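Researcher: Please translate sequence to structure tokens.
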Amino acid sequence: MPETTTRPVWREPGMLALIAMMAAGFAGYALLFPVGPLWAAHGGADAIGVGWVTGAFMFCTVLVQLFVPAALRRFGWTPVLVAGLVLLGVPAPLNILSDGLPAVLGIAAVRGAGFAVITVAGSSALAELVEPARRGRAIGVFGLGIALPQVVLVPLAPWIAEQVGFAAVFAAAAVPLLGIPSTVGLGRRLDTLPVHADAGRADPHGGLRRIRGLVPPVLLLLGVTIAGGALITFVPQASSNAATTIVGLLLLTGLAALTRWRIGHLADRIGARRLLWPFVLSTAIGLVLAAAGVSGPGREWLLLGGMALAGIGYGALQNLTLAVSFDAVARRDQVVASAVWNIGFDAGTGIGAVVVGAIATALALPPALLIAAALSLVTLPFAFARR
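Model: Translation complete:
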């Protein structure tokens, strides 16, 4: 049996450098994902304004993701990856200059552009480095590398902001710059691979038909990321108990990391498509429980249970929908699949923050979470879509 099929996927050439780079980038992302909205609230923003902090970040992420495949073709891997880490890390400490909503939104927008680069290029690199037969496990290891910073930092960052100060979080959020050295070896490895040379180019014989198989997994991803974006953005403000907030976010991110990692082994054995539907239900039920948990005091256990179930769906569907997306297109279109998947992920996260924030302002957070649960459940038929 060839060596490439017997050694662990994390030992494939370039994988450790990729994971190190992504971990640094996602550490910067995780520090400000819950704290950016808190900083806007500190400056007097209402729920709509608070939601737009996440929304602006994700809007610019989605916009720039459209251009990442072309940038990779034109400039190569290393320059593009370095630019992404710089855009994500350098603006973060500037938040301390103002808690006014326009300044917070502007910085979030620039950082969103950097996040766009590392998300699309990172998952595209994964598809290049590991063969399709072990892609589920590779996505699991890759997902664990980017999830662990979130497991630690998403629950911890709001506490640090409140107990130590926002400035400490803003300074730490420049950590993506530490990932720059990893891009050199990674970029050198990727630039030697021939597959990327024609990735994403126009095909007069295919057109949109080449990527129509991406529609079901991306819609499923939208449903679960709306849930994740809503819970991460608003639970820190909805709960009056700091311990409940920390435990809830830890359950959400920790179980997401665990399921995203472990589901890959099962997906390689029986197929990712067969595993989609239970996790759509897990997400919807989790949101219903979370809505009940924030509706009044004494119901913290419902909130925690809901965030746990939502976290399981959040992690598993990230792995499974990415595997299905790569499987739905030809090898030459892997970078396009990565871009489309990441656009779905970040659009859902942004929608979850903005739309749920608007509904929460008009009604209350519990009805807003119930509507998010309904949106997640509506995607269930796409879990049964044929290849």
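Researcher: Any highlights?
Model: The first helix runs from residue 15 to 42.
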